# Entry
Amino acid sequence: MQKFIGYAQEILQGLTTTLTLFIISLVTGFVLAALVAAFQIRFRGRAAQLVWSLMFCIRGVPLLLILYVVYYGFPLLPAVRESFLWTVFVSPFWCAIICLSVVEMAFTSEIIRGAYHQTPKEQVEAARSLGLTGFQTFRVAILPAMLRNGFPAYTTEVILLCKSTALAFTITVMDIMGYANEIRSRTLDIYPPLLIAGAIYILIAIFSRTVLATAFSLVALSGRKSSEAA
Amino acid sequence: MLEYLNAGWGWQFAKGLGASLFVAFSSFLLSILIGICCTLVARSGFRASRHLVNLYTYAFRSLPDVLLLILIFYSLDGALASVLQLLPGTGQVKISPFLPAILSAAIVLGAYATEVFRAGWADIAPGQHEAGHSLGLSRFQSFGLIILPQVYHKIIPYLGVLLLISMKETALLSIVGIPDIVRTASIGARSTGAPFVFYGVAIAVFVAFAILTSALFKRLEGRSRQYMGGI
# Structure
């Protein structure tokens, strides 16, 4: 029992790293995704097609490979080596954040785009015919529908991101997985450290789900009220 | 690029691709099997079985796949040995490293497949079973001939995503030392000092797989729509 508590304490040292990775890349990824999706919705045609193809490619490549390219590949570029970028790409933590944000951007932008295109056309036309401006239409008629349509997929995506942060240990970031794997290779004890780490990840997932569901119920209710008022 | 091809890297990449594809398709098929079985178990009518399936999908959709892979990879040997000790007359077995890789990927993907199948199954009218019965089909026949084709029609796009994920999942093989595409690329990048050629090839392989998969499943979807009519 003493051993377990020792392991748990050591693994929990990585909790801050895992949570920081998770939250920073979640927020950055979402902001980037919103920009990318807005670009694709606003400018249709060749440019949007190009952006979509790029996102498709990012979605098709495993995160592990992207991590390797950014962490082991980029520092070899002369342009990176001789500029301030060197300090960024030499740190595994920032490399992990960049990769996670980019992948999150690729997936979330597609969710946002899908949610936008699922909004019924009549709803937008109705808002327009009431004389609302473009932004008002978006706020009253499109955004609530987008939230409702996109919410389940986005929850899945957030949980996927939480799982993906575990891959950061492959580029020597000491997160929960990193500590668990370190204990495993040091003590040759397989089950205790990995199961403790797994339990922590599941707890983080449960917590994120609860937070998201609560946030969604608040926003969705207020959305319904304002659309009823309109 | 050609000089690397001549130096034997082409063959290495081909072997890596073979390993990745083998693991991807095995875990894909296994996960579909898990998905169908879990859906049947969840719909069997016992409340406990439904909760069990829920627990399985919830846990393995939240657990990092790399954690499960490492867990299974390092413990399967010992677990298998201790099981075999109970049976007299069996010698030492050495399991291939592919087995834990396929197993862990299938368990994780199985959780997703279960969700997909359950969603596809959910809106099939219960009368369909009875209709099959009244036509004189056995339970198994009505399952295979009536229910499954409809579920398949509904979930084709998700199956495509599942296949793509199972291919992406094979990148994890490099962590436990199986020479897949990613490992071949990173060994090549390190030993030749031309990282972008090698990583570029690996990325191209995955992107090509993604394009092929999405084209294939779009075709399957179109064919199924023709076949099923406007359901």
About this structure: Confidence is low (pLDDT under 50) at residues 225-230 of chain A. The domain at 2-229 of chain A is CATH 1.10.3720.10 (MetI-like fold). Chain A touches chain B through 39 residues (CB under 8 Å).
